[in-house]
Each structure stands twice: as C-alpha cells, then as structure tokens.
Amino acid sequence: GAVGAEGREGVFRMYPISYAVYGEYLRPNPLPKVYDFSPYSPGKMSKFTTHASRGGVRYGPLEEYKYQDDYSRSYFAVTRRKGGWDCMRHYEILASGSIPFFLN
Length: 104
Known about the structure:
The protein has 104 residues and is α/β, with parallel strands linked by helices. The protein has helices spanning 64-72, 88-95; strands spanning 35-37, 74-79, 99-102.
C-alpha cells in the first residue's frame, strides 16, 4: 500500500481548496468543440484579443460572450500562472467546459 503523509500506510492529510465562479459563467451545455486549443492565448495582449493569424481579432467590451464562446468551443485553453494559480481566467476556462493547459 501507499505510505501517507503521516508515515503510516493509507493515512493522508487533506486540505480544502477554494473553487468558486460567478453563475453567469457556467455553461450547462458547452458549444460543439471546433478547436483543440482556444484561439486566445494569454500574454501581453488584451484579454479580448485572440492570436488568430497573429493579426488578432478584437472583441469590444460588451462582447465578452464571444471570448467565452472561444473557450467553450475548445478542448483546451492555454494559460499561465502569472500573478497566482488561483485566478478568474482559470475558472472561466473550466466554467466554459474547457480544460486549462498550464505552460508553467
């Protein structure tokens, strides 16, 4: 058997983690998948700019649903730790029905 954190077989310490997202981000029925990886990639670009053809597609401030749709249509979404592991972008990805793909 496996030796747990206490040095005894089968005994493991567990710690709670936080997980919360705004209800409006949840998608009970994700869109059909058309991308392996979402067209948006975090970096120096604006949150609402995709890397499509490196020219980018810009969404207006009232078109966040299009940004969320890109995540929903993707199996994976590239993300980074940046300021911390617990950030809204990771929850947006999960709530859209995609899987975060961490580069670091």
